[in-house]
Amino acid sequence: MSYKIRISIKRLFDIVICGIIFVVGFPVLLMLGILVKLTSPGLVFFIQTRVGKDEKPYKIIKFRTMIGQPDKNATRWTKSEEDRVTSIGHFMRDYGLDELPQLINILKGDMSIIGPRPPLPQQVTEFSSHFKKMFRMRPGVLCLAGIAGRRSLTIEQRYELHVQYVETWSLKLDLKILWRSLFIVLRREAASEKLSGE
User: Fold this and answer.
1) What is the pLDDT of residues 166-195, one digit of tens each?
2) What is the mean pLDDT of residues 147-159?
3) Where are the alpha helices (DSSP H) in the chain?
4) Strands, DSSP E only, in the chain?
5) Roughly what angle, to the nearest 10 degrees, separates helices 26-39 and 87-95?
6) Among 32, 71, 87, 108, which residue carries the largest CB count within 10 Å?
7) How far apart are the first and last CA of the chain?
8) Beta 140-142 vs 57-63: how paired, if at all?
9) Three-state SS for 72?
10) d(Cα 82, Cα 113) in Å, to the nearest integer?
11) What letter would DSSP give residue 85?
12) Is residue 174 within 8 Å of residue 114, measured between CB atoms?
């Protein structure tokens, strides 16, 4: 099977699965949005510029999990930001529910269910040509780095795994990442080090 056909299957999988989740899970999305609004002041969604396929910027969408807005110029999730995570925010982060609005990004074609995690624009300015290989595919909500070590990985190691994913990608690898990611979420394993606002 050619690479082009496999990529088309990957895109079709994204559309079908996200469409089903969006329709079936709409009451959950609505409930979470209401809880975010009722439990802390601020907007329901957090929108931030990230860099996607072919180094094109796009707006990533998440449920807001913090009181106030994080420093959009920061490249790390700081202790002060951690202290501002709301109670519902902690719950959503534990189970990855804050990422659900990215269904919109996937349906728009900005993202895929599985792929390299999208960096901030200011981080890309420091990328080597090797790390920029990660932009050959759409960024994902789930990624290889997310099942390979989480907190134990440095940011450089995560970027290396993003490149490895792009260079060795297959539909079988996507299924492996999806399967293992589900168990990680269900076990509520500690999230990997966050970028600012994640």
Assistant:
1) 999 999 999 999 999 888 776 665 444 444
2) 82
3) 3-24, 26-39, 79-83, 87-95, 102-108, 121-124, 155-168, 171-186
4) 45-51, 57-63, 112-114, 140-142
5) 150
6) 32
7) 36
8) unpaired
9) coil
10) 26
11) B
12) yes
